[in-house]
């Protein structure tokens, strides 16, 4: 029978599963409804402190066979500020390891950037300096050039040409890698190297699924840097 002389909050007394001491609701740890195993706040603080020293980031409830994680925000109000900060630092380090990351390639910035999107990304804005970079090769954005060609970029003229390629949507011959500028005619291009490809998708014609059948022939002797121009071939229906 309940003792009516006891305070209301003293009627519900449980024992901490770590220290086995009785505890009232005031000192019972609440894991944000993830689980309800009885632990006193002192034992939880000591448990977290030990795990943080071991550099463990994902802290499981200390109850036997419980797979629920401790909620950092539920723990914040009972932890010393320094301990909570250490735990947060470990969580951040863990997030960096688990996610694809890169450092801004510009010497005046060097900020750490995380890929928070699903799948591969290429062009990215540094959230700190706002400059463009390539997330795949970790270098300044190389518009018009593939990642494996960035080491060949010598000066600002290369960058300017890359921007020109991107702006005009020039395509590359899949055989010789020359950029092709299409002025008129159909989408099927026959490069001077002999490769027949589709200007729409950039694939060799044998693997292209586009429906057009006419051919445009790359005209000899019209090099412009590392690109060529094309003219329509009136006899080129295949």
Automatic annotation (TrEMBL):
The protein's matches in Pfam families, at most eight in alphabetical order, are given as:
IBR (PF01485), zf-C3HC4 (PF00097)
Which keywords does this chain's UniProt record carry? Metal-binding, Repeat, Transferase, Ubl conjugation pathway, Zinc, Zinc-finger
**What sort of enzyme, by top EC class, is this?**
transferase
Enzyme Commission (EC) number: 2.3.2.31
| Known cofactor(s) | Zn(2+)
Cite a single GO BP annotation.
protein ubiquitination
| Entries under Gene3D superfamilies matching the protein | 1.20.120.1750, Zinc/RING finger domain, C3HC4 (zinc finger) (3.30.40.10)
- RING-type domain mapped to chain residues: 12-228, 16-65
Q: Does the keyword Zinc-finger apply?
A: yes
Select a single GO molecular function from the record's annotations and give it.
ubiquitin protein ligase activity
Top-level lineage group: Eukaryota
- InterPro entries the UniProt entry points to: E3_UB_ligase_RBR (IPR031127), IBR_dom (IPR002867), TRIAD_supradom (IPR044066), Znf_C3HC4_RING-type (IPR018957), Znf_RING (IPR001841), Znf_RING/FYVE/PHD (IPR013083), Znf_RING_CS (IPR017907)
Q: Which reaction does it catalyse?
A: [E2 ubiquitin-conjugating enzyme]-S-ubiquitinyl-L-cysteine + [acceptor protein]-L-lysine = [E2 ubiquitin-conjugating enzyme]-L-cysteine + [acceptor protein]-N(6)-ubiquitinyl-L-lysine
Q: Give the family this protein belongs to, as stated in its UniProt record.
A: Belongs to the RBR family. Ariadne subfamily.
Function (record text): Might act as an E3 ubiquitin-protein ligase, or as part of E3 complex, which accepts ubiquitin from specific E2 ubiquitin-conjugating enzymes and then transfers it to substrates.
Provide the protein name.
Answer: RBR-type E3 ubiquitin transferase
């Amino acid at each position: 029978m309940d003792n009516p002389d006891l305070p209301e909050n003293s009627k519900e007394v449980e024992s901490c599963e770590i220290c086995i001491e009785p505890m009232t609701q005031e000192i019972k740890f609440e894991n944000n409804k993830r689980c309800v195993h009885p632990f006193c706040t002192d034992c939880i603080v000591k448990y977290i402190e030990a795990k943080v020293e071991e550099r463990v980031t994902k802290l499981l409830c200390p109850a036997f066979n419980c797979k629920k994680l401790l909620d950092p925000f539920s723990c914040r109000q009972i932890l010393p500020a320094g301990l909570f900060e250490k735990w947060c630092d470990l969580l951040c380090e863990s997030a960096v390891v688990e996610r694809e990351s890169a450092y801004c390639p510009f010497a005046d910035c060097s900020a750490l950037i995380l890929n928070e999107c699903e799948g591969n990304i290429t062009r990215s804005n540094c959230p700190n300096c706002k400059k463009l970079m390539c997330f795949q090769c970790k270098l300044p954005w190389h518009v018009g050039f593939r990642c494996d060609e960035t080491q060949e970029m010598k000066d600002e003229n290369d960058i300017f040409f890359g921007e020109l390629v991107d702006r005009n949507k020039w395509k590359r011959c899949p055989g010789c890698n020359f950029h092709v500028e299409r002025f008129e005619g159909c989408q099927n291009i026959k490069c001077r190297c002999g490769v027949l490809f589709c200007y729409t998708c950039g694939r060799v014609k044998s693997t292209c699924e586009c429906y057009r059948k006419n051919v445009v022939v790359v005209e000899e002797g019209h090099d412009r840097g590392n690109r060529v121009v094309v003219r329509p071939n009136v006899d080129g229906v295949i």
